[in-house]
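1st attempt posting a full record on here, be nice pls
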Amino acid sequence: MTEIPSREELVARATALAPLLRKHAGWAEDNRRLHEDVVEGLREAGFFKLRRPKRYGGYEADTRTLVEVGAELGRACGSTAWVLGVYSIPGWMACHFPDHVQDEVFDDADTRVCGTLSPSAMAAPAEGGVVVNGKWQFISGAHHSTWQEIIAIYVPPEGEPYPIMALVPISDLLIVDDWHTFGLKGTGSVSTVAKDLFIPQDRVLPLPAVLQGQGASQRNEAGSIYLSPLMPVAAASSVGTIVGIGKGARDAFLHRLPNRKITYTGYESQRDAPITHLQVADATMKIDAAEFHALRLADLVDGKAASGEEWKLEERARARADMGQVIKLTKEAVDILATASGGSSIYTDIPIQRFSRDIQAVNLHALMHPNTNAELYGRVLCGLEPNTLYI
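the predicted structure (as tokens):
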């Protein structure tokens, strides 16, 4: 039996990794992927086991643990925390496949599954499975992955097309090194391509079923973390990174504060200026509020999983709204701190500019954008049906 660390122990491990992450944050940005030492550090800390089933030596960590670990990692390097958060989502999705498929996927002690929720490929029926052609963008951590979860639109011989989810070894896909961005640069979120790729039927599931928390595994027990609907789990798996970016920006600002003057004023230390007091307080309160929404979301997902209660539509919509609020509030906080950091902060060796670019990149993510999620929540609150499958 694998000894499962407590949440406190896992968070402590994340804190201990912070110096390594900060050391290689610049390298990750320059090379547009995580440094191998960082990947190894995450492995040694056991973080690739967070969502791995216990029967394969994993921890089956609850969602609140993901949030708190992600926040500590994001405080040091947003790209590192982002990749780990992404791995936790398709890694969780892999646990919906038949048990013999999971046996294959988790045969590697350090399996890392990257993936997507975007149906940007087409699948056609073939004897014993499907044939897929297409391209997926924003595949974070692909360089260090062993498997990829993909989404494609399946066109059956009869009936309407519908989205499917499938698992493929990363070696079956072409990696296109096209990750040239202004934010989250170290995530290595490249594109992957499938050309006439045959996927056996047992590695294919209908996406609508997974969105509802319905899989093909026989060994996922009642109360398991794998029986929740996909979107609330995905939302809750992402928000720790965001809170961490906000805290990291504040750490970076306060570190420079005592020795930084406000140029062209009488303030020899920015710390003495009343405007600074207002800015730090305002940013901190926004980070605190963001953390409230992150933990409320995590506790909702964990509570539902433990009780087995059916999810209400309003709760599903609120899960996405909470995620949107985490991003909105964190971005507002980081914007305040970045604005207060002065012209010298535009140099790339000053961490505040990296946190600022990272949160702007997150804010643009299609499934995470605060406006999109707030609109969806308001739509449901007004008694209308959601206008998306992703809820």
